[in-house]
Amino acid sequence: MFSEDIKILATEILDLCRKNDLKIATAESCTGGLIIGALTEIAGSSDVVERGFITYTNLAKQQSLQVNPVTLNRYGAVSEQTAKEMVFGALTESEASIAVAVTGVAGPDGGSAEKPVGLVHMAAQKWGNDPLHEEYRFGDIGRSEVREATIIAALTLLKKVI
């Protein structure tokens, strides 16, 4: 189901979390649960994976992750500010000690001049530390390709934060 590169990254993250006694949560919009899916694809991941939030709509981001409606109105769902609030929400609404959040425009529709298809904001945070944010502009490479690139980038960011 997932590429060998994704499986390798997911395995590395799970091993690092075990060594550092960390539990993971994800907060996903444009990937629709694929990041948590990649982690749970690895047998034995239940000792590290705490939970995943799939918050595709603004209302879901507000209800599940406590994303401030003012943030969504001012900056939009696809923004650095929203990604940071999503990752913080994933930590505070779970028992995880580390989390990653992604929000973006996977396409083929939904893009604009300001926020084109392929734009993804992500944040990762270890409990007690500031979030680390990254912005990607993958381009209009196809919905599946944007989502796969996002999984790889999010797992890589998570690895940096660990």
Oligomeric composition of the shown chains: single chain
The total count of strands amounts to 5
Radius of gyration: 14 Å
Please tally the helical runs, counting DSSP H or I stretches of 4 or more residues. 6
Low-confidence stretches: none
Indicate the overall shape. Answer: globular
- Percent helix, as a range, is 40-55%
The portion of residues forming beta strands comes to: 15-25%
User: How is the main sheet built?
Assistant: 5 strands, mixed
Q: How far is the N terminus from the C terminus?
A: 25 Å
SSE pattern, N- to C-terminal:
HEHEHHHEEEH
Strand order of the largest sheet: 2-1-3-4-5
What would you call the structural class?
A: alpha/beta
Indicate the mean pLDDT.
Answer: 97
What does this structure look like?
The structure is a single chain. 44% of the residues lie in helices and 20% in strands. The chain contains 6 helices and 5 strands, in the order H-E-H-E-H-H-H-E-E-E-H. Strand 1, helix 2 and strand 2 (49-54) form a beta-alpha-beta unit. Helix 1 runs parallel beside helix 6.
